[in-house]
Amino acid sequence: MRLPVASVGQVALSQLTLGIGAQVTLSGHPLMSTLDAARARSNDPRQPLVIPPLFTALKASSDSIRQLKATPRDSALDTPLAIQGDSSMHYDLLARVMQTARMAGFKNISLQVNRTGTIATVTTAPAAGAP
What distance in Å separates the CA atoms of residue 35 and residue 85, rounded to the nearest whole number? Predict the structure, then answer.
């Protein structure tokens, strides 16, 4: 028996999720402990907020998405990045995570929060001078 062949076009890219709890995860894959992320020092004096191990993982993801979408290497991505953090997350860590994501090429960053038992998404605007 020979089955017909079907083509559905390009693979759909949904949003990536960056989780911040006891660990920092990217699409469910652990990257580092949150304590390690908070203690990480930037290796770029012009970008003191960047978390190097997180930048490496996000940059690899953004480069892969650019390749799939045939987008120029240093252009900002439209693919959403959702940050899910628990209520114990400190603002300074959130600021560093968001800046790291921007430097890796993500311009569409949202925060997911619980609102009366449901998940809501709050989209942030790109920072001035962000790629």
Answer: 14
Q: Provide the domain count of the chain.
A: 1
Q: Domain for residue 67, yes or no?
A: yes
Dihedral sign, Cα of residue 46, residue 48, residue 50, residue 56 = positive
Question: What is the number of alpha carbons within 13 Å of residue 115 lying toward its C-beta?
Answer: 7
The answer to whether 82 and 28 are in contact (CB under 8 A) is no
Report mean pLDDT in 10-residue bins for the chain, 131 residues. 46 75 93 96 95 96 90 85 87 95 94 63 52 51
Residue 114's DSSP bridge partners are 119
Domain assignment present for residue 129? The answer is no
Are the beta carbons of 73 and 104 closer than 8 angstroms?
A: no
Query: Rounded to two decimals, what is the model's pTM?
Result: 0.76
Report if residue 104 sits inside a domain: yes
For 117, list phi and psi in degrees, rounded to 5.
Answer: 85, 0
Q: What six digits make up the tokens of 72?
A: 């120029």
